[in-house]
Amino acid sequence: MSVPAIPDRSPAPRSGAGDVLPDVRTVGLPRITAGFDEVERLDRVTHLNVHGSMPSLTEGELLDLAELMGLRGRGGAGFPFYKKLKAVGEAARRRGTPTAVMVNGCEGEPACRKDAVILRRAPHLMLDGALLCAEILGARELVISVTRDTNEQSVRDALAERGLGTKRGRQLRARIVRMPERFVSGESSGIISAANGGLPLPPGKKVSASESGLGGMPTLFSNTETFTQLAIGARMGAIRFGSAGAPGEPGTAMLTVSGSVPRQTVVETPTGVPMSYILQMCGGNPGQGVLVGGYHGAWIDPSVASMVTISRESLEAHKATLGAGALLPLDPGLCPLGESLLVAQWLAAETAGQCGPCRLGLPRMAGLLQDVLNGGGQAALEQLRQTAVAVKGRGVCKHPDGSMRFVMSSINAFTDDLAAHVLGGGCGRPTVGVLPLLKSDPPMPRGGGSAGAAAAAPSNKRLNVDWTLCKGHGLCAGVLPEIVRLDRDGYPDIAGTPVPPHLDAAAQRAVARCPALALRMEEGGRR
Q1: 255-282 pLDDT, tens digit each
Q2: 277 SS3 class
Q3: Which residue ranges does the record assign to the NADH-ubiquinone oxidoreductase 51kDa subunit iron-sulphur binding domain (predicted)?
Q4: In terms of pTM, does the model score above 0.70?
Q5: CA-CA distances (angstroms) from residue 104 to 127, 330, 437, 444?
Q6: CB of 280 within 8 A of CB of 259?
Q7: Which residues pair with 221 in a beta bridge?
Q8: Which of 56, 76, 229, 462 is found 20 to 30 A from 426 (Cα to Cα)?
């Protein structure tokens, strides 16, 4: 399949230190990325010059449009958007209550940056889609959740350019909710909790936002790209919108490509384009496998990556999902299980710390995967599988299940490497940390605080053992079972283990109680 590619559309955005946006490239004609080659950020005037004004639609017309577009949520779950929209309208009429619209702009996963690109460079497209829904539903409030200063400022500027805000007397009040920069911050119930003045944590209650969300109102909740695609479709109409992309999945998709590529890149591409083409244009190839869907996704092998296309149907045929649109190829010269271990440790540190599967299960899974790589043999592998089964389906949110899926995919996808570690002395290849991982905010303490409170400084602490002093007393395992495991000889296996912020106090107690003074908590190092 020959698809024309437009070169890099990014005039080097001037972002804050440590928060530089990735390159942006486009396959075919740009839609969401239109105008990116001209300006860094499309303000209100430039936005209207590039995209034109929004049409006026009735509720029925919008429902038909969303259904004909085949529009699904672009945050990972892929739920049909028109069904959400319909459910909110029906709930509001049945209950006789106003509604709300919420935009999930939180990307706590460093492998996903497409929403950040939209929020910082084309925020008015997102607002077009969200405000269209708010008008049709008669919404009282519009809430946009973000995690970074730069994203927040861009959205705040866009609201000001439209004269939107929280002043009394407005028919629609628009505000921004700032979330901690953590993996679990994108979970819908956590964002709703924060917007309602509670903690930015998933409360564990299985209540549909369409029935009771912001302030108990029926709430339309979807992510940044979803509302943006709706704005594109409203202008183009369903037929023109479907002129690009796969027949059963029309339009374009925003992807983030990282891993073994020269630079992290966000790509707007029609659906149906071969994955291998996208990887090639970003300077990569299927390598020894591609992680699809991000850190709650799954690995696919090179032969599959070479034949699948960017579409839900194509990927689902191989038990994979595009999720939030992340593609991470892995170079054949690296240890795939070692690279996966770094991600598993990061996922364990990203827990909200409020349920057993997250607080205990994820660190144990990461520790057991490390045991497997360090020669723990078949026994360690079997323990890892048992722990994964115990974690599945028991979390307050979807983080434990997604993390378990990633770990199990890692050991199932790289069977030759697994055998080399289980039966021999390892695969002999290095681990360099090619999969992007970032430090992030600690979780909000459960004892109090508000969503708007400033988060504490991120932790970069690790537990280490001075082996010249350790006598194998094992007291640390009793004080800190979430992190410390004893090997077959009774000694702690915790070399360089990261300490999640919520376990800091327990780790300090374990250090203080070591009778041989062998346990230490140190700052620095890779997280």
Answers
A1: 999 999 999 999 999 999 999 999 999 9
A2: helix
A3: 337-381
A4: yes
A5: 12, 29, 21, 19
A6: no
A7: 102
A8: 462
